[in-house]
Amino acid sequence: MTKSWARIILFVRSFLPNNFTGNPVLCNWVNITPLSALLVLVLLTSCVSVKKFNEKLSTPVAAEKLKADVDYAYASLQELHPELYWYISKDSLDRKFEAVKKTIDSPLTPAEFYRKLAPVVADVRQGHLRLVLPDRKLNVDERKALKLQKGLFSRYNYVVEEDRIFVKDNADKIPNMEVGTEILKINDAPASELISSYRQLNNSDGYNTTFLRYSMAKRWPYFFTAENGILDSVKMETRFKDSIQTFWLKREKITAAEKKTEKEANRKLTKSEKGKTKDYNIITRSFNRDLQFPTKDSTVAYMKIKTFSGTFSKRFYRESFRTINNSPANYLIIDMRDNLGGSLSEINNLYSYLTAEKFRFIKDIQITKPGSMFQADYFRMVPNITKPIAAVAYPFYLAGTAFSIKKTPAGTFLRNNGKTAVKKPNKDHFKGKVYVLINGSSFSAASILPAKLKDAKRAILVGEETGGANDGTVAGRYSTRKLKNSGLQLPIGLMLIQPDIEFSGNGKGVIPHHEIIPDVQQILQKKDIQLEWILQDIKKDSAQSTGPDGKS
């Protein structure tokens, strides 16, 4: 046995009681082997690292070190983020970073420091850019217990109206949380104060405001958990109709057998042909894509796309548009409400089914400098199971990246990679009239596609100004910078992605042709006044097309 292995075994044995003679289930500790020593070493060091990590989250950091983190965060943004001063001047952002340093005159915990720096990052007004406070790590027993519990806040969807929180969905029909219930207090903290305090941590693209209510409805549980940790229960004060009540909202237990049954059912569905093509989402328990014909005569096709995940999307659009073109449908409604974006390739492909002309979907992708793409989070994008393959492919990734970069007098760009090329319309493209439903939660790729359709005069947009900017966004690949003293993380988008359109220059989202904004009660009552408007408009258009005698 080598000296190294001997040291490892001695280290492992140092954690054992003197009279410990072994556990036949695990191994014979009297004659411990190098492999078993290594496994136990990994387990012990993992436990130690979890403890140290969590202790660091609650330990105040010296003011000078935090100021160094502020400087590093700003320097990283200046180095990597394209169009950093798109919505805020350099002088103004300089002053904000300097101002936050002046407020740091004593040690702060990472969470306290996050509260100071996150609003400054939000002032950049880029919806993809946000500071991240690391979560408390769980040990093995805690992770195991959490897997056998259902969520606390995550089992509901919410509506946030100004500083008020309402329960939008209660799929599991949990008592005391009926649809329409208003949350007044959580652990005696007024919901209005929580939302007000979280608002400064939230941001959207440019001067858009429609995104914030939808974003807050999704993110307030994250902010609450970041401050309070993962809780087994919370004290709730709610109002439903005219009744106010106080109760404890608790995590429900789920047995290992129930968990296994649920996992198997999800696996069967997601692996089925329907589950693949429509992209079944086990979290929402629904399909991310779907095609329906809502009218009896099938003259209207309705395509709902909840996210541009990219998963089997080519097959879905190929099959869907063949189905549409073989049907009587001469109207197509594409619903991109509450779609937070995703795959650029998917929306590029979808657009090819909606146009009859050659097109260039996006402009050349701009980056800050040739070296920025080499700092992208390559391995973060890869599942653990495929990381060995990714490691082998990494040199080819680096080579491909190097050849894709071009410097011009206008800046540094990525060469044509198919997404920026001129493309032909798909042979099965739809020739009828297109309506697109959008709202404040149509973001990123779900803003780029409507912007392109509107510029090309190919669709009628109905609903609400999109949360993502009309003129493009900074996203794509990211480089995550860790602020070493506080441990906060800053994922920075490296790519300026802009649709190939005439820019509005107003710093707003995509403005619909027909603005229709439902109020809170209509949302809670599931009244879809936006879709109803389109169906009525189609009736009028169809009547005008056929004429008074019923003929075209």
TrEMBL record:
<dbReference type="GO" id="GO:0006508">
    <property type="term" value="P:proteolysis"/>
</dbReference>
<protein>
    <submittedName>
        <fullName>Peptidase S41</fullName>
    </submittedName>
</protein>
<dbReference type="InterPro" id="IPR005151">
    <property type="entry name" value="Tail-specific_protease"/>
</dbReference>
<dbReference type="Pfam" id="PF03572">
    <property type="entry name" value="Peptidase_S41"/>
</dbReference>
<dbReference type="InterPro" id="IPR029045">
    <property type="entry name" value="ClpP/crotonase-like_dom_sf"/>
</dbReference>
<feature type="domain" description="Tail specific protease">
    <location>
        <begin position="262"/>
        <end position="517"/>
    </location>
</feature>
<dbReference type="GO" id="GO:0007165">
    <property type="term" value="P:signal transduction"/>
</dbReference>
<dbReference type="GO" id="GO:0030288">
    <property type="term" value="C:outer membrane-bounded periplasmic space"/>
</dbReference>
<dbReference type="GO" id="GO:0008236">
    <property type="term" value="F:serine-type peptidase activity"/>
</dbReference>
<dbReference type="GO" id="GO:0004175">
    <property type="term" value="F:endopeptidase activity"/>
</dbReference>
